[in-house]
Specification:
about 270 residues; alpha/beta; Ribosomal Protein L25, Chain P; Alpha/beta knot; 2 domains; 7-stranded parallel beta sheet; 5-stranded mixed beta sheet; 9 helices
């Protein structure tokens, strides 16, 4: 698999006669970390939905020169756009959420200050967190960098989610109603997922969210950690809308094919 790098779209536009010089972190990564060689190929991403396959023609410590081969739309972006409204978590737990949810296909993150948050607002957004998102997006073959919003309090986040998404859901272990899979509609749309902090949401917060139009749901009989719940919920949502399957894959047809093969094997087996 070729290494992938997000670059400013202005750089792509400045490509002259199919040749582009790149400096800074990408040159350092190629030359000093990955130790790629002349003739190796990499993929440049413009964060606008396209990817550009290029060949290394010159490699120095602080500069590389690449030649354009071809371009195509990035294929790793889901049709379903999920914004994860994650209550602030401490240290590595927040890093885990950003990294793994980017990998699975979340399109945006909003750090939220809720009643039982232990982490402080300064832990929601930093240059390091943006780098975590970028590296995860490059590794997982995304074509767009997920947005990382400014930290906001819970009530404001509820209002924003309802105003900007087709569906808003809050995960709560105390919910006795529908689970996430049954709460999702049949058609795709933009989805806001609310996940609480280490201590979970208070009943008052869930009531406030519900009054705003956010649907409380459960993830089932097991209690997940705060950093795990968003990842699981995003994966369920994307799978339900067909965004975890490769293009052209029909799961129903695959099941039918497997059952047909199993039946044929059983019929061919000698009777004891």
């Amino acid at each position: 698999m070729m290494h992938r790098f997000f670059v400013e779209s202005e750089l792509i536009a400045r490509m002259s006669f199919g040749v582009l010089a790149l400096e800074g972190s990408i040159a350092h990564q190629v030359a000093n970390v990955l130790r790629l060689r002349i003739g190796d190929e990499i993929v440049l991403l413009d964060n606008a939905g396209s990817e550009y396959r290029v060949r290394l023609e010159r490699i120095e410590r602080k500069l590389i020169v690449v030649r354009f081969i071809n371009s195509q739309p990035a294929l790793g972006e889901p049709q379903t756009k999920i914004t994860l409204y994650q209550s602030l978590l401490k240290g590595e737990r927040w890093d885990f959420v950003l990294q793994k949810c980017t990998e699975v296909g979340v399109s945006g993150f909003v750090p939220v200050v809720s009643e039982r948050c232990v982490a402080q607002s300064r832990e929601g957004r930093s240059g390091r967190h943006l780098r975590i998102i970028q590296e995860a997006a490059e590794q997982s073959q995304r074509g767009l960098l997920p947005m990382l919003g400014e930290t906001m309090n819970f009530a404001v986040a509820c209002d924003q989610a309802i105003a900007t998404h087709d569906l808003a859901i809050i995960l709560w272990e105390g919910e006795q109603g529908p689970d996430l899979g049954h709460a999702l509609p049949q058609r795709q749309g933009t989805v806001a997922l609310f996940v609480g902090p280490e201590g979970g949401y208070s009943a008052q917060e869930v009531t406030l969210a519900h009054e705003c139009g956010i649907i409380p749901v459960t993830l089932g009989p097991r209690i997940l950690r705060a950093e795990t719940a968003g990842l699981v919920a995003a994966a369920i949502t994307l799978y339900s809308f067909g965004d975890m399957q490769r293009q052209g894959t029909n799961l129903s047809d695959l099941w039918k094919l497997n059952l047909k093969k199993a039946s044929a094997v059983a019929s061919a087996s000698p009777v004891a």
